[in-house]
Amino acid sequence: MGLARSTRLVAAEDRAAQVFDCVRAFLTLHRLSADPAHYAFAHEVVCNPTGVLAQSVGTMTEGGIRLSTRDIETLGGGHAESSNDPAPSDGLVAQTQMQVEGFTDMVRSMRAETADFGRDLAASATAMQGSANSDDLVRLTAVMLDRVRSAEARLQAATSEADQLREKLEEARGDARRDPLTGLPNRRAFEEAFAEHMARGTRLCLAVCDVDRFKRVNDQFGHSVGDRVLKAIAEALSTACDGHFVARYGGEEFVILFSNVDLATAHTTLESARLTVDAKRYRLRETDTPLGAVTFSAGLSPADVGEPLGAVFGRADKLLYAAKDGGRNQVRLA
C-alpha cells in the first residue's frame, strides 16, 4: 500500500470517528436513543451544518430546548421505534391533502367551463340577433339554461366540498396540538399557550416533570405498559393541577404552566400531584403482578414578564436534573 493511499485511509478513519463523536454528542444532548431513525437524522445534521435541516434544528432548539421524537418526525426524520412517542396524524393530513387537491381540480374545471360558457353565450346572443326563427331561439335558450343548471350544480358541489375541507382542517388543527396517547395538549400547544400568556402579562410558573426510571418500565414490561403509566401520570397531573395548563412535552416529560399564582402555591400544587402518584401501587392488568412504585421528578421556576420560553424552560430543566441527581421523586425550586 502506497504512502498516499495510507494517508487517505487514516484521514478517512479520523473523519469517520469525528462524525461518530458528533452524532453521539447530538443524541446525548437531546436524550435520544440511538435507533436508526435518530442516528440518520443526527448524521444529516452533523454532516450538513449549513443545510435546511440543520438550520431548522437550530431554530427549534434555540434557548436550550431539546428536540423530541415528534420534532424529528415533523422535520422528516422518520419514525422512532418506541410507542411512547406519538406519531403525527398522518392519515388525517393525507386525507385533507387529497381533499385540497380534489377541490383545486374542481375549481380549475369550473373556471374553464365558465370561460367556455361565456364564449358560447356571446355566440348565442349573436346568433339570436341574426335569427328570426322562433325554434332557433327556443333551442338556444334551452342550451343556455342547461349550461346554467350544470354550473349551479357544480358550484353547489364545490361549496359542499369547501365546507367539508374546512371541517377537516379544523380537525387537523386540533390534532396537531393534542397528544393522541394521553389526550393532553402537546409541545406545540404548550409553546403557543406560553406565548399567549406572556403577551397578556400573566404571572407564570413553569414546571418540567419527568417520570423516574421510565426506560426500566419499558424494558421490563413493554411499551404498552409504559403507555398506561404515561396515561396515569397525565391524569394525576391534570387532576391535581386543575385550572392550569398541563401538557405532554414528549416521551416521558410533562410540562405545567401555573398561571396567576406565586411560586409557593405552584409548589404546593405540584407536590400534591407528586404525592398522589407516589402513593399509588400499579399492577399489571393481565397477571396482577406488582409493577412497583412509579414516581416523577420535577423542576419548578417562575417566569419574569417578557422572558423567553427557552430561558425559563432551561432553568426549570436544570432544576429537574438536580432533582434526579438528588435521589428522584422530588420537586426542586428556583
Question: How would you portray this structure in words?
Answer:
By secondary structure, the chain is an alpha+beta fold. Helix content is about 65%, strand content about 10%. It has eleven helices and seven strands. The strands form two sheets. It has a five-stranded mixed β-sheet, with helices on both faces. Strands 4-5 form a two-stranded antiparallel sheet. Strand 4 and strand 5 form a beta hairpin. Helix 1 crosses helix 2, helix 8 runs antiparallel to helix 9 and helix 9 crosses helix 10. The protein is elongated, with a radius of gyration of 30 Å. The protein starts with a helix and ends with a strand.
Structure at a glance:
By secondary structure, the protein is of the alpha+beta class. It has helices at residues 3-29, 36-47, 52-60, 69-74, 90-129, 134-175, 187-200, 214-221, 223-240, 263-279, 309-325; strands at 204-211, 245-250, 253-259, 282-283, 290-292, 296-303, 331-333. Strands 2-3-1-6-7 form a 5-stranded mixed beta sheet, sandwiched between helices. It has a two-stranded antiparallel ribbon with strand order 4-5.
